[in-house]
Amino acid sequence: MKFKQLPALALALLLPFAAIAEEMLAPPSQAPSRPKNLVIMIGDGMGPAYTTAYRYFKDNPDTEEVEQTVFDRLLVGMASTYPARVSGYVTDSAAAATALATGNKSYNGAISVDLQKKPLESIMQKAQKRGLSTGVAVTCQVNHATPAAFLAHNESRKNYDQIAATYINSNADVILGGGQKYFTASMRAAFSDKGYQVLDDFSLLKDVTQPKVLGLFADVQLPWAVDEPEAHRLSTMTRKALKLLSQNTQGFVLMVEGSQIDWAGHANDITAAMGEMDEFAHALEAVEQFVRNHPDTLMVVTADHNTGGLSIGRDGKYAWEPAVIKAVKASPDTLAKNALASDNWQQPLGDALGFALSDEQTSHFEQARMQGKKVLAQAIKHEIDLRSNTGWTTAGHTGMDVQVFASGPGAELFIGNQDNTDIANKLISLLPKTAKK
Ligand SMILES: [Zn+2]
Fold first, then answer.
1. Catalytic pick from 87, 93, 122, 331?
2. Cβ-contact 75, 299 below 8 angstroms
């Protein structure tokens, strides 16, 4: 008997069995082919020199091998970062975040708008239409360029107040970072009215059990990680965001940013940069652990661009001395501030830098100190650079490609060379096809 001649009833009975048989024959696999949850992690300014420097910074020099970092473990590919033609080859964080959030290139300064300044739908908006929860956790103000491109649309990243004012309509379930000064009492009340918990005390975050939370934990950006190494703010916010968002059985999209790697790069501050890298690495490990326990989650990590032209070695010398950086007990900003606040600053500064200041260094710092905090911080950074053999080429961005790291179902899509817009388009292709009913 031919299949097509089967009576309708028999077909109806057979088909479910065929489906079950096919399922039984499919290769056993723990993880589904399509992820339910997406975690996008962005190391702002984290070009390849940063992950390399971090490896040697973390290396135990007493063992023969150079130990792998979480970045080494998860590396799968590279991505170009150039913005729309009108802005040349070197992107800013806004155009790069627009590419990563929407899959479209735009001009430097654009917050998820196209060249005509028309809104581009972000992965967060697409995810919400499909019934997924969304969130961001960052160490800058939450309305800074990278998170803004995921939650808002604006013709300029500089319109901080306008961007913050639109967040009430972003419908993001979790918004964690800094930026109290941009959210007025009436804006916060509007969030409360919409069912959000609004927090500005980091210690209260641990008690939050329901999504719909706006946590603003600093006036502008969070403190340098190197100044409070035990705080682990980014990894704590990341773990909390994962916990809250995973309450949605349909899935979620979370964007996590190590925002101030870039700021350390702009400031040519290797001490702060390694502190921010360490905390971003902690956040990666938290997500890596979540992926292990939730095989339906895909994590994709990249940078938006490279900052500072960091070089591991300088002045023709074949050497880099991370032990010098590890010995520094606070950020140069904080060391300079402390030195200005006390007449008896020489000994404490030497102690905090991990070496006794020579007479020449003391008089050099003394001259810098008389010109104020900024100049003294510069002098301190320069001394650390010379001793550790760290180089910089610019206070801005450079156009080199960045790395792509991934783990979880769909990670193989990110292997090899790609453009930053491809990263977003691949992630968007992994969202459920059907809209929320
Ligand atoms: Zn930057």
1. 93
2. no
| Spatial CA neighbour of 298 closest among 290, 306, 307 | 290
Measured CA to CA in angstroms, residue 367 lies from 307, 355, 387 at distances of: 29, 19, 20
Residue 43 lies in a domain: yes
Angle ∠(74,76,79) on CA atoms, nearest 5: 120
Domain that holds residue 328: 313-391
Q: Give the orientation angle of helix 373-388 with respect to helix 346-353, to 10 degrees.
A: 40
Phi-psi sector, 177: left (phi>0), alpha (psi -120 to 50), beta: left
Sheet of strand 75-80, all strands in order from the earlier edge strand to the far edge: 197-199, 213-216, 174-178, 133-141, 252-258, 37-43, 297-303, 402-407, 75-80, 416-419
Establish whether 407 is a catalytic residue. Answer: no
pLDDT tens-digit series, residues 277-304:
999 999 999 999 999 999 999 999 999 9
pLDDT (tens digit per residue) in 100-149: 999 999 999 999 999 999 999 999 999 999 999 999 999 999 999 999 99
Q: How many domains, in total, are found in the chain?
A: 2
- Do 325 and 268 fall into the same domain? no
Distance from residue 304's CA to the centre of ligand 1 (Å) = 9
CB neighbourhood size of 337 (10 A): 14
Does 286 lie in the same domain as 203? Answer: yes
Residues with CB under 5 A from ligand 1 (ion): 262
Asked if 303 and 345 sit in the same domain, the reply is no
Q: Which residues are within 8 A (CB) of 169 and not within 5 positions of it... i.e. 6 or more apart?
A: none
What angle is formed at CA 417 by the lines to CA 416 and CA 421, rounded to 5 degrees?
120
- Same domain assignment for residues 141 and 71: yes
For residue 307, the CA-to-ligand 1 centroid distance in Å is 6
